[in-house]
Amino acid sequence: MPGPSLSRRRFLALAGAGSAAVALAGCGSAKKASPVPASGPEVQAAEEARRRSGAAVRDVAITAAALTADLGDGLQVPTWGYGATVPGSEIRIKAGDVVRARFTNRLPEATTIHWHGISLRNDMDGVPGMTQPVVDPGASFDYEFTAPDPGTYWFHPHVGLHLDRGLYSPLIIEDPAEPGAYDREYVVVLDDWTDGLGQSPEMHMEDLRAGRGPHAAHQAGGGPHSEFLNSGGGDVNYALYLLNGRRSETPVEFVARRGERIRFRIINAGADTPFRVALGGHQLTVTHTDGFPVEPVTVDTLMIAMAERYDVTVTVAGDGVFPLVAVAEAKADEAMAVVRSGAGDVPPSSVRPRELDGRILRRSDLVAAESVRLPAGRPDRTYKVSLGGGDAGYVWTLNGKPHGKNKPLEVRQGERVRLDFENTTTMFHPMHLHGHTFQVVNPGKPAGARKDTAIVRPDEPLSVEFIADNPGQWMIHCHNNYHQEGGMMLTLSYVTDRALTSQERASPLGLVCDWVARSVG
Fold first, then answer.
1. In Å, what is the CA distance from 160 to each residue of 234, 258, 299?
2. Above 70 in pLDDT, residue 6?
3. Partner of 487 at 20 to 30 A CA spacing, among 136, 184, 346, 358?
4. pLDDT given for residue 520 in this prediction
5. Can you give the pLDDT at residue 13?
6. In Å, how far from its chain's centre is CA 50?
């Protein structure tokens, strides 16, 4: 049956004064760019490409529930966690394995799990309303995905302020081909703690929205300041800082022998706090960041922002008890553990090793190992990402608007994408990209580190590039949990062309396109 006719006069009326060119440009080949669904065929194809024949399957059960956490020295607090401890039990697998996790929610609120830093299938990413529905109280959800890249990762909720409780666990993906040039390995998880000790996370958020607390001092130009971050160290005053779930008065002990090389996998699970890390009497050789290897660089201390991970090696210098200290940057306390290679007393929790004031790791020090560098090339698409807000009502923005009101960044499969971050606020922001690892751009220098989370300081632009090789709908956001909850999120949207529906063809633009096609033909 012939389509509806369209006269030249009707075409001009539909196109409108000054808009004919726009209307014609929209015709293309009678196709429309459409977002790739989180469970679409493109996502399934990407997962099939990752999964190797005969891959081992690791079945795990994870339950989120209320518990009483023992933080050491007799201090027990009510909180939420994964299992019976904080942090939750580590999951350790090999690269290429398939994780099959049955998650059960025993909390009084709906929640999810986000597998931080993993290039996994989109519908397993744990972002409610974008990649999956929330998991209601009493319900379960089955996560299944291939873990393609070795490294230090972790998992946590992606709902509200749930992260600022005890809901986090390490996820270690081992490289079967790694030479293992170390004698021992320890996982170090840092956290800032408020739950069960006065104000809840939600009460802190109420204060921030009302203009009370440290954030108000930062906005007024006062409050504690970090020269390294060019800003304050966070927006919340915490009661405690923890290392592997223990306060510094009763620290965890890592046992070693003189001359042994130890690998530490350091994870910052805090919601609002960056930590400056050092080991008394030792230097740190950085070998990986956010799971990916770098050309080794030796420093005295490093700054680790929320959600970042660093792998470092140290060679035990002698017999003794050495403080592994994580000072809450621009705040008033620390988390601490000790490395014990001999007899001796545990140092006081107030100890400050001189290494904290030594050479600090800079972003420009990190060069991606050759094996993980992106191929040389120019970006197919560049986006500016402007970080703003934090004023009235504690609303934080990306590209001028909070999440839900800002425009998604559209990309297509296979493109090389550049993100130019610009921070117009007075705070630092650890910016995290879901489902991908980007390469930091170091102008005039070799390829920067491969990361998924990077610090963007005030008035200091940061550019990163990545390959759009994992289709779906992904989140870009600040990993300060309070900034994220305040709106500092943005969608990275894969799009693909699809044919117009009959309804779209019958629309004014569809009639225009049909008229153009018949006229040209």
1. 18, 45, 36
2. no
3. 136
4. 42
5. 47
6. 21
Taking the domains of the chain in order of start, what are their residue ranges? 8-30+500-520, 49-174, 184-361, 370-499
If you search the block for the tokens 């080794």, which residue do you land on?
296
For the residues 42-64, what does the mean pLDDT come to? 97
Q: How far apart are CA 31 and CA 323, in angstroms?
A: 62
Cβ contact 95:88 at 8 Å: no
**Chain segment 262-272, per-residue pLDDT in tens:** 999 999 999 99
The pair of structure tokens assigned to 202 is 């939600």
Q: In sequence order, what are the residues at sequence separation of 6 or more whose Cβ sits closer than 8 angstroms to the Cβ of residue 241? A: 190, 191, 192, 193, 247, 248, 270, 273, 275, 326, 328, 331, 333, 334, 335
Residue 4 has pLDDT above 60, yes or no: no
What are 490's strand-pairing partners? 476
Residue matched to tokens 């089955």: 142
Q: Are 345 and 316 in contact (CB under 8 A)?
A: no
Q: What is the dihedral of CA 452, 454, 460, 463, to 10 degrees?
A: -20
CATH of domain 370-499: 2.60.40.420
Report the greatest alpha carbon distance in the chain. Answer: 94
Closest CA to 479 of 237, 202, 234, 118: 234
- Measured in whole angstroms, the distance separating CA 234 from the mean position of its chain's CA atoms is 17
For domain 49-174, give the fold.
Immunoglobulin-like (2.60.40)
List, in order, residues 6 or more apart from 470 with CB less than 8 Å away.
46, 119, 122, 435, 436
32 falls in which pLDDT band (50, 70, 90)? confident
Work out the average pLDDT over 455-465.
97
Mean pLDDT of the chain: 91
User: How many CB atoms lie under 10 A from the CB of residue 44?
Assistant: 14
Alpha-carbon distance 329 to 455, whole Å? 14
Give the residue carrying structure tokens 């560098």. 373
Architecture of domain 184-361: Sandwich (2.60)
